[in-house]
Design goal:
Elements lengths: L1 H20 L7 H13 L5 H16 L5 H15 L6 H14 L5 H16 L5 H9 L1 H8 L1 H16 L4 H9 L1 H7 L2 H16 L4 H16 L4 H4 L1 E3 L5 E3 L3 H24 L1
Antiparallel strand pairs: 1-2
Length: about 270
């Protein structure tokens, strides 16, 4: 019954955590028994079971419970098969979604060598616009996962394609993640390539694309600032934040010290 398999998938992460904590007693139980079930259920015929399997896999990766060898030899090959050009449409959409979500949890080498080539292919998928849209929406995360060199060499050309896609939703998704992509590139690429590209989005024929671009204008401009002097940086969740300058920290500490001294003096006077 699909409901039984779905329930089983929901129990896998807590069981895996228990086995990890009791590893001396069960040294190979997770790798021999549980991990093969998770991998198998990624291709289950029932979509609810597959969804539960995907969620379980992400939790296991987030908790760092999956060995690097299992990621490279079991998980990645399945996802590459499911996202192949001749794969079923539903399976392909799910596979590209899970690839994008797990990229930030894997090592840079694994993402670059095993998943990045397929991601670049999926960015140009002419059959399913849903696949291209998932790639566009997660483009900044992939850039952050592989770093500047791979971003400029392989991903920026694909980003240009998506920014000129005939589907306006694709261009809108690119405008929304523009800051994250820009933050990963060098100042020269930012100035010479991304700036003209952003102007094309801010002048787009679709008002939804223009609106998204205008909302990203400030964050995009912030990527031109020197982080050490401007105090701007990108959090792990991709949002822009401001780091207090050393002068501000010193000033706040000094103020706090003065407040304490003042309170002490007031107490003594009383």
């Amino acid at each position: 019954e699909p409901t039984v398999r779905t329930e089983l998938m929901e129990q896998i992460p807590p069981i895996a955590i228990f086995l990890q904590e009791s590893r001396p007693k069960f040294p190979t139980a997770f790798f021999e028994y549980l991990m093969p079930i998770v991998v198998r259920y990624l291709t289950d015929v029932n979509n609810q079971v597959r969804k539960a399997g995907q969620e379980a896999l992400l939790i296991l990766l987030e908790q760092d419970l999956v060995a690097q060898s299992d990621i490279e030899n079991k998980v990645c090959p399945i996802l590459l098969d499911l996202s192949a050009p001749d794969s079923d449409d539903e399976y392909k959409v799910e596979a590209v979604n899970i690839i994008c979500k797990m990229a930030s949890m894997l090592s840079r080498t694994t993402v670059e060598h095993m998943l990045l080539p397929r991601f670049c292919e999926l960015c140009s998928d002419g059959k399913l616009f849903q696949v291209r849209k998932i790639c566009a929406a997660n483009f900044g995360d992939i850039c952050n996962a592989v770093g500047q060199e791979a971003t400029e060499r392989l991903l920026i050309p694909k980003f240009f394609e998506l920014c000129s896609d005939s589907v306006w939703g694709m261009r809108k998704a690119c405008a929304e993640c523009f800051m994250a992509v820009s933050y990963t590139t060098s100042p020269e690429v930012r100035r010479s390539k991304l700036s003209p590209l952003f102007i094309s989005l801010i002048s787009d024929t679709c008002r939804w694309v223009r609106q998204a671009a205008f909302q990203s204008l400030g964050p995009f401009i912030s990527t031109f600032a020197n982080p050490s002097s401007a105090g701007l940086y990108i959090r792990e969740d991709g949002t822009l934040s401001i780091r207090p300058s050393p002068q501000d920290v010193a000033s706040n500490s000094c103020q706090a010290s003065n407040d304490i001294n003042f309170m002490s003096s007031s107490t003594n006077v009383a």
